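Fill-in record for Acyl-phosphate glycerol 3-phosphate acyltransferase.
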Amino acid sequence: MITVIRSLLFNTAFYANIIIQMIVFTPIYFLMPRKKAWIVPKNWALSNLWLQKMIVGTDYEIEGLENIPEGAYICAPKHQSFWDVFAFLPRLDDPVMILKRELMWIPLFGWYVAKMRMIPIDRGTRAKALRSITLGAQKAIDEGRQILIYPEGTRRPPGAPPQYKYGITHIYAELGLPVIPIAHNAGLYWPRRKFRRYPGTIRCRVLPPIEPGLDKEVFFKRLIEVTEAACDELLIEAAKGPNPPPMPPTAIQRLKELGVEPTRTRQ
């Protein structure tokens, strides 16, 4: 019952925070130069993390920050939750996100996104989408920005078999930039398409850069291997911790494959 109450309070505060900050900071945001205006969405991200800690009791830790280089690179986080959409923003200098074109049509939100010159794509036509991404990404890296892309394209529950899209390989080959994989276990504490939020500590791991210039297949295989291996380690740490979160079926199955018996399961 406590988890339900805290989840209700947090979800209410989370969406209220979006609306209030958009209304209060809109004049400041649109009058500031584009790069300086990042202070508004980054402040929003930090305030969400604070609300989650204060209301739900969910903290987070990021290790491997020394692996983040300066200048342009491709940032490739695991995508498990809405949490990973905003949580890394304060750690990135001037990111450009690759997102669905339909998001640009949302009133006010779409205007916020447009100011930051994100890269909208039409996922219905693969060849056109890849050309659009490449052109937009090239302009971004000429400005020293970071390309933020989720290799699986959609949220996957913790422990689920990986479904990486080949599009990141095309971008990697075309741009000639290092790729920074990021593993985490946020989906255990902020599950996709679920109401409940769980207390604990979300653990993230910024992995060493994958250098540019590798064969496409070699790169693709390495990205999957290093990211999934780190996610497995973080899943096991959470399951063996003093107060593990309830595990979804995909995490239970993966833990069994790894020889670990979960102590809590999610209904």
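KEY FINDING: The CA atoms of residues 120 and 135 lie 11 Å apart.
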